[in-house]
Amino acid sequence: MSASEPSAGKQKHGIFQRFLHSQVAGSVVLLACTILALIWANSPAGDSYRELTHTYVGVSFGEHSFKLSLQHWINDLLMAVFFFVVGLEIKREMVLGELSSFRKAILPVTAAVGGMVVPAAIYLMFNIGGKGGAGWGIPMATDIAFALGILAIFGKRVPLGLKVFLTALAIADDMGAVLVIALFYTEQVSLKALIVAGVFLLLLLVASRANVRRVGVWAFLLIAVWLAVFASGVHATVAGILVAMVVPVRARMDPHKFVETVEANWRKLDMSKLTQESMVSNNDQYEALRTIDLAATDMLPPGLVLERYLHVGQAFLILPLFAFFNAGVKIGGDYLELLSNPISLGIILGLVLGKQIGVFLFSWLAIKTGRAALPTGVSWGQMWGVSCLAGVGFTMSLFISELAFEDPELVSEAKIGILMASLIAGVLGYLVLTRALPRLSLIH
Q1: Residue 262: which of 300, 301, 289 has the closest Cα?
Q2: By the number of CB atoms within 10 A of the CB, which of 48, 112, 258, 273 ranks highest?
Q3: What Cα–Cα distance (Å) separates residue 1 from each residue in 9, 97, 427?
């Protein structure tokens, strides 16, 4: 093993730990906003909550205007940023991470397929041919923030392999959810608008390859892609995924060239008297520092940089706002009746049982057929616990419910099912993992 390999492994684990911690911390804020929305929507001031979510905001150009409700601005624009980060995660894992080779990807991808097919089948058992038939995609998704948040409760008891498996599973699951949204929850598609979106995406790719650094150019192209996808009839959030696919996740500069550039310019600085003020009057010092700075920028993969910085906004702003504006469903009347309607029941059984059966069974088949192996240090009991946690659908499930149904009553039934299913799956996963994970020794 070379000297660089251990440091590379530490760097990879450091990236994963930063990703994990941002998801975990964000899940607390996400839960708080969900509870706040539910309390407000079911309080005597509930009408003001609904008025807020349906307040229209936009711009006018003479006789023309472009307006969306606050809920739609969040679901169509801010969630495009969320999908952009999801796209960066998917690309990173496919190029460099746990989905980068068949050997690595086979277990989480197989588990994800089982975790999508079985829940959808269970949901359709209750709703096929009925008014809720279009909601079959709702119980297919896993909420990575909540799932990892629950797993993090156990701290050092959780093997790294189990955390990595759950993360890779959720990312593969997100890939499936994005495909479902793009292929099955788009009614009418404008080919002209999609061609325009494709042209702007190509320009983004060219700008990326040409190492264009002007913020204005990137802002114009990003807005143009979003507007073109929005106009095409494909849900605007898909623009986030498309843009993420053209962002490099590898360094743009050869490492040897980087070292040579830094060393050459460092020698220039070392030969001159460098102070905090000297580069103002000494142009050679300024150019040497600027060259080092540009070289360092080119060595940092743009995908990794964007993913790291956008995670903060996604975890503490976008997803909490989404939860606040979408989770505030009014719960009234007979609770048993609310939970026993075909839509709610299909979602609850799909997420709680379907995810559990699908993820665990398909993982078992992949391992028993010799195509995959259990992650290092992970037991079958722990795999069962993670399979239960996969039933925490929440964010993506709420999002798909808004796409699947136009009738507010059906949307409410779906959201009630999602909230109840996510609660049950989270508690069940916690109880299973409590018994399956090793207890920490108090003796050091």
Answers
A1: 289
A2: 112
A3: 12, 20, 43
Structure confidence by residue, pLDDT tens digits, 297-312: 889 888 888 888 888 8
DSSP 59: E
432 within 8 A of 385, measured Cβ to Cβ: yes
List Cβ neighbours of 288 (8 Å cut-off, separation of 6 or more): 265, 266, 268, 269
List, for residues 76-100, the tens digit of each pLDDT value. Answer: 889 888 889 888 888 888 888 878 8
The whole-angstrom distance between residue 84's C-alpha and the CA centroid of its chain comes to 8
- Distances, alpha carbon 307 to alpha carbons 83, 246, 415, in Å: 11, 14, 29
Helical (H) or strand (E) element with 67: strand 64-69
In 204-355, which ranges are E strands? none
Mean pLDDT of the chain: 86
Record the tokens describing residue 115, joined without a space: 């975790």
What number is the average pLDDT over the span 216-230? 89
Q: Give the pLDDT confidence of 142-194 residue by residue, as tens digits.
A: 887 788 888 888 888 899 889 889 988 988 888 888 888 888 887 778 889 98
Distance CA 395, CA 399 (A): 6
- 126-141 pLDDT, tens per residue? 999 999 999 999 999 8
**Under 8 Å between Cβ of 105 and 96:** no
Query: Could you give the C-alpha distances from 190 to 79, 228, 233, 426, in angstroms and in order?
Result: 22, 10, 6, 41
H helices of 235-282, in order, are 238-244, 255-271, 278-281
Q: Is 281 exposed, middle or buried (0-12, 13-18, 19+ CB in 10 A)?
A: exposed
- Cα–Cα distance measured from residue 232 to residue 226, given in angstroms and rounded to the nearest whole number: 10
Hey, is 187 helix, strand or coil?
coil
Look at residue 338 and tell me whether its pLDDT is greater than 80: no
pLDDT of residue 125: 96
- Per-residue pLDDT at 444: 41
Instruction: Give the pLDDT score at 443.
Output: 46
The angle at the Cα of 176, spanning 382 to 73, to the nearest 5 degrees, equals 110
In 3D space, the residue among 179, 117, 142 whose CA is nearest the CA of residue 362 turns out to be 117
Neighbours of 146 (CB within 10 A): 25
Which of 424, 355, 347 has the alpha carbon at shortest distance from 135? 347
Residue 218's alpha-carbon distances to 76, 90, 201, 222, in angstroms, are 20, 22, 11, 6
DSSP state of 138: G
Instruction: Count Cα neighbours of 272 within 13 Å in the Cβ-side half-sphere.
Output: 19
- Is a pLDDT exceeding 70 seen at residue 14? no
